[in-house]
Amino acid sequence: MTKALKSLALISGLLLSVSATSVPAFAADNTQSADEFRTSKLVGSKVYNNANENIGSIEDIVLKADGSMDEVVLSVGGFLGVGTKYVSVPFSELKVSRDGSSFKILSNNTKESLKGLPDYQFFKS
């Protein structure tokens, strides 16, 4: 083995040992499964009721400090942003499923019942 090959083998071995030890113990899996949903794809999605009527859309998703989902802020009413009202519902109240390459998000609420909820106030940071 030439000196250059020995050096290359030594450097490769060092790099492998460094990269193997630099993986944090808390690393999660690296593949999304079919029953997991990306919040970036949920935001903006329409929400339907059981009669398949559009009752609003997801404006934002609020997380607790521990990382768990707390509530979903829905945008209801209005047209082109005028007259829009923001309300929150528990994430557990929504049923999220895949509909081909898009999502189907269902709620037992009606547009009227959502409009009757208090306005959601975002924290001003």
UniProtKB/TrEMBL annotation:
Keywords per UniProt: Signal
Q: Does the keyword Signal apply?
A: yes
Q: Which residues form the signal peptide?
A: 1-27
Q: Is the keyword Ribosomal protein assigned to this protein?
A: no
Q: Which InterPro entries match?
A: PRC-brl_dom, PRC_barrel-like_sf
Pfam families to which the protein is assigned, alphabetical: PRC
Task: Provide the PRC-barrel domain boundaries.
Answer: 35-99
Q: Known PANTHER family for this protein?
A: BLR1072 PROTEIN (PTHR36505:SF1)
Q: What is this protein called?
A: PRC-barrel domain-containing protein
Q: Which organism is it from?
A: Hyphomicrobium facile
